[in-house]
Amino acid sequence: MNNVTMKSRDTVSGKFGNCYISLNMDKKGNYSENVNRYLFMQVTNVKAKVDFDIADISIMGQSGMGHKTVGWKGSGTATFHYNTSMFAKIMEYFKKTGKEMRFTMQVTNSDSSSSAGEQVTILKDCLLSGATIANIDSGTNDLTDDISFTFDDYSISTPFNVLDGMAVSN
Fold first, then answer.
1. CA atoms within 13 A of residue 125's CA, in its CB half-sphere
2. Alpha helices in the chain (DSSP H)
3. How many domains does the chain have?
4. Residue 26 domain-assigned?
5. Which domain holds residue 154?
6. Of 44, 83, 100, 114, which has the most beta carbons under 10 Å away?
7. Does residue 170 lie in a domain region?
8. β-strand partners of 123
9. Max CA-CA distance within the chain?
């Protein structure tokens, strides 16, 4: 029996990649009719996930419940160095106008040393759940902050490569 295992070099380092945010905000943090794309270089961690909404299904003649996927919801979090007002300005825009400012987030994993290659995920119609509007801490040398958000759609425009040994032959 051939015991194929993953090569350690094919793990993907979380340090290599980038994150872009596109939204209707100018460089001064004001609403703009134009969508501007910003490199979110402050980010140190982004995690987005999809959870299925699963309904219990009663089935005649069976004592157990069946299950059926009836929808999904997307949510995410990000940690970043606290040196941007972007998210506080999104909150301020809503406070002033009562209108949401949604954004698109593009997250790219790009570790050139891995055979997995690059993956590009685009999170669409992101909605901020909240944001820090002021932050100070005399006990730290680098302030960080966290946000949470939801998203209504996504696409994986560039998927990872299938690693050698993963493919099933018929």
1. 7
2. 86-97
3. 1
4. yes
5. 13-54+68-158
6. 114
7. no
8. 105, 154
9. 67
DSSP 164: T
pTM above 0.70, yes or no: yes
Indicate the residue type of 40.
F
Residue type, 141: N
For residue 72, the domain's CATH number is: 2.30.110.40
Tell which residue, 77, 86, 73, 82, has the closest CA to residue 46: 77
Tens-digit pLDDT string for the chain (170 aa): 567 888 999 999 999 999 999 999 999 999 999 999 999 999 999 999 999 999 999 999 999 999 999 999 999 999 999 999 999 999 999 999 999 999 999 999 999 999 999 999 999 999 999 999 999 999 999 999 999 999 999 999 999 999 988 877 76
Cα distance between residue 162 and residue 109, in whole Å: 15
Instruction: Give domain status of residue 97, yes or no.
Output: yes
Name residues whose C-beta falls within 8 Å of residue 112's C-beta, 6 or more positions apart in sequence: 16
End-to-end CA distance of the chain: 17
Cβ(59)–Cβ(36) below 8 Å: no
In the chain, the amino acid numbered 111 is: D
**Amino acid at position 159, single letter:** P
